């Protein structure tokens, strides 16, 4: 809705941005699976809607919106464009996803296992999207069928999962990967493996502080990709200490991904940005950078 500023005013847009973020955060953390496929199909049939529009209508109802009355403009400006039904096919065909189906394995505080999204369970499906009129919208996706995915947890807390959001938000760094690549943070090794698969990538160096995470990668994941194992070097160490010691020309591409989500990523993101001059000719990428910039932009809140 291009005229949302005329509808709401700049101050009101900022207030609505904050409202939507709070409501979607509550949904994703406390009730992501509250909507069922039957509910979506029923609303879609009754209203002549797409399933995505039906899902948005159901989200609006959960948030106590009058989607055809007093909240109509707010609903159409925010809820309708932020929801989409996601096709699982591209994610199922991902060359990493196709091979990694781990049985539950533990190494110290770390655990590697398969988890699943229920049909119609809401998930984040990309970085925040900012419109010219100032609206800031989270991207909410859903599958109509169950989706199983590998995950690595530290002390029971998800640290990295191969949900669509992970692959979508890692794609810019993968697209830019070439030559000698450095990445901070191992996780499931998704970026390291996918980057090493590219013929234009000569090597991938990973800096990871957890010996347990490294052990899981080396025992359970790296053997699944013998064609790239010789291109990947994992170093146990502190990312910032390593970054501070870099020299010009040492790497061609640097990707930082040591934060759990955008909420705890602002401070390390800014620290890494300040260290770009240590390797100034490298292309620098940051996981969730568009979303992190939104958090740092006070004009949006």
Low-confidence stretches: none
Number of strands: 14
Give the overall shape, derived from the CA principal axes. globular
Order of helices and strands: HHHHHEHEEEEEEEEHEHEHEHEHEH
Q: What topology, given as strand order, has the largest sheet? A: 12-11-10-13-14
What class do helices, strands and sheet pairing give? alpha/beta
Radius of gyration: 21 Å
Helix tally equals 12
Instruction: Classify the helix fraction into a percent range.
Output: 25-40%
- Please state roughly what percent of the residues sit in beta strands, choosing from under 5%, 5-15%, 15-25%, 25-35%, 35-45% or over 45%: 15-25%
Please give the alpha-carbon distance between the first and last residues. Answer: 19 Å
How do the strands and helices of this protein lay out in sequence?
Layout (H helix, E strand, L loop, with lengths): L3 H5 L1 H21 L6 H11 L3 H12 L9 H11 E3 L3 H4 L12 E3 L2 E8 L5 E2 L4 E2 L5 E2 L2 E3 L4 E8 L2 E5 L2 H13 L2 E6 L5 H8 L3 E8 L2 H11 L10 E5 L2 H6 L8 E4 L9 H9 L8 E4 L2 H8 L5
Parallel strand pairs: 1-7, 10-11, 10-13, 11-12, 13-14
Antiparallel strand pairs: 2-3, 3-8, 4-7, 5-6, 8-9
Helix pairs in contact: 3-4, 4-5, 7-8
Walkthrough of the structure:
By secondary structure, this protein is α/β, with parallel strands linked by helices. It is built from 12 helices and 14 strands. The protein has helices at 4-8, 10-30, 37-47, 51-62, 72-82, 89-92, 164-176, 190-197, 211-221, 239-244, 266-274, 289-296; strands at residues 83-85, 105-107, 110-117, 123-124, 129-130, 136-137, 140-142, 147-154, 157-161, 179-184, 201-208, 232-236, 253-256, 283-286. The strands form 4 sheets. It has a 5-stranded parallel β-sheet. Strand 10 (179-184), helix 8 (190-197) and strand 11 (201-208) form a beta-alpha-beta unit. Helix 3 (37-47) crosses helix 4, helix 4 crosses helix 5 and helix 7 packs across helix 8 (190-197).
């Amino acid at each position: 809705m291009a005229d949302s500023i005329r509808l709401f005013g700049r101050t009101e847009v900022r207030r609505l941005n904050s409202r939507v973020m709070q409501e979607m955060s509550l949904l994703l953390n406390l009730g992501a699976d509250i909507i069922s496929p039957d509910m979506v199909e029923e609303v879609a049939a009754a209203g002549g809607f797409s399933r995505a529009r039906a899902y948005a209508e159901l989200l609006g109802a959960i948030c106590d919106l009058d989607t055809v009355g007093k909240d109509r403009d707010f609903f159409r400006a925010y809820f309708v464009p932020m929801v989409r039904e996601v096709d699982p096919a591209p994610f199922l065909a991902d060359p990493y996803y196709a091979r990694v189906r781990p049985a539950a394995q533990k190494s110290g505080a770390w655990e590697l296992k398969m988890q699943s999204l229920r049909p119609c369970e809401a998930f984040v499906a990309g970085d925040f999207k900012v419109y010219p009129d100032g609206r800031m919208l989270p991207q909410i996706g859903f599958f109509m069928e169950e989706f199983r995915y590998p995950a690595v947890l530290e002390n029971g807390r998800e640290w990295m999962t191969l949900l669509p959001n992970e692959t979508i938000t890692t794609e810019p760094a993968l697209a830019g990967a070439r030559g000698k690549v450095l990445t901070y943070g191992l996780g499931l090794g998704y970026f390291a493996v996918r980057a090493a698969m590219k013929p234009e990538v000569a090597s991938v160096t990973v800096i990871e502080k957890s010996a347990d995470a490294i052990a899981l990668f080396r025992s359970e994941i790296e053997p699944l990709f013998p064609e790239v194992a010789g291109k990947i070097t994992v170093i146990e160490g502190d990312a910032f200490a390593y970054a501070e010691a870099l020299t010009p020309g040492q790497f061609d591409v640097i990707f930082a991904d040591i934060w759990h989500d955008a909420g705890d990523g602002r401070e390390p993101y800014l620290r890494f940005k300040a260290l770009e001059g240590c390797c100034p000719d490298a292309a620098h990428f940051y996981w969730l950078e568009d979303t992190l910039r939104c958090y740092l932009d006070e004009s949006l809140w």
